[in-house]
Design brief:
Mean pLDDT: 96
CATH topology: Rossmann fold
Radius of gyration: 16 Å
CATH class: Alpha Beta
Helix content: 55-70%
CATH architecture: 3-Layer(aba) Sandwich
Low-confidence stretches: none
Shape: globular
Structural class: alpha/beta
Bound molecules: adenosine monophosphate
Distance between the termini: 11 Å
Order of helices and strands: EHEHHHEHEHHEH
Length: 190
């Protein structure tokens, strides 16, 4: 079973590359951002609670995220493998994910981290804002908050996997296809 954590700052291209990874490796996609947006669209209690944080560019509390992911894993138990996108975003979430995976006798195979400089991230998020309809893509302050939250709370997650020898960095600069080729190369080594 291949279970990948796709990691990177907001605007690094995780969503775009996830689609290509799923198609090639037949993995089940678990994007916590997408799951929260679905809850929001359906007007569930979880969606309404998450919205308060999402619209400010802040992280939704760990317990809410972890429970939602566990439900999703449980629902998809016959999966060929999982790709986690936008999760885990704190070390607490990473530890909880290990625990949930162990429960099902699964484990994280490796992390693929997209590396993109901050200036390029802002450019991409503003371009995405034209079509995404996402409140958190729309203004500089929210974009800056998301990048700061990434640096302070999410970057330590990379170290968590590095210490286990599971970290693979990939440059997220270049054409979508070339970046994907490099991702596929490192996944094949996992
Ligand atoms: P994303 O689509 O991954 O950029 O996520 C959009 C927003 O959803 C984030 O800015 C957070 O408010 C929330 N979110 C998504 N995933 C997580 C997570 N793993 N932990 C906490 N909040 C999250």
């Amino acid at each position: 079973m291949l279970n990948i954590v796709l990691f990177g700052p907001p605007g690094a291209g995780k969503g775009t590359q996830s689609e290509k990874i799923i198609a090639k490796y037949r993995l089940t996609h678990i994007s916590t951002g997408d799951l929260f947006r679905n809850h929001l669209g359906e007007g569930t209690a979880l969606g309404l609670e998450a919205k308060k944080y999402m619209n400010e560019g802040k992280l939704v509390p760990d317990a809410l995220v972890i429970d939602m992911v566990e439900v999703k894993i449980r629902e998809t138990r016959d999966a060929y493998g999982f790709i986690f996108d936008g999760f885990p975003r704190t070390v607490e979430q990473a530890k909880a994910l290990d625990k949930v995976m162990r429960k099902f006798n699964y484990e994280i195979s490796g992390m693929v981290a997209l590396e993109v400089p901050e200036k390029e991230l802002k450019k991409r998020i503003k371009l995405r804002a034209l079509t995404s309809g996402r409140v958190d893509d729309q203004d500089d302050e929210k974009i800056n908050t998301r990048i700061r939250v990434y640096e302070e709370e999410t970057l330590p997650v990379a170290k968590y996997y590095q210490q286990q020898g599971k970290y693979q960095g990939v440059s997220g600069i270049g054409s979508i296809d070339n970046i994907f080729k490099e991702i596929a190369r490192v996944i094949d080594l996992i």
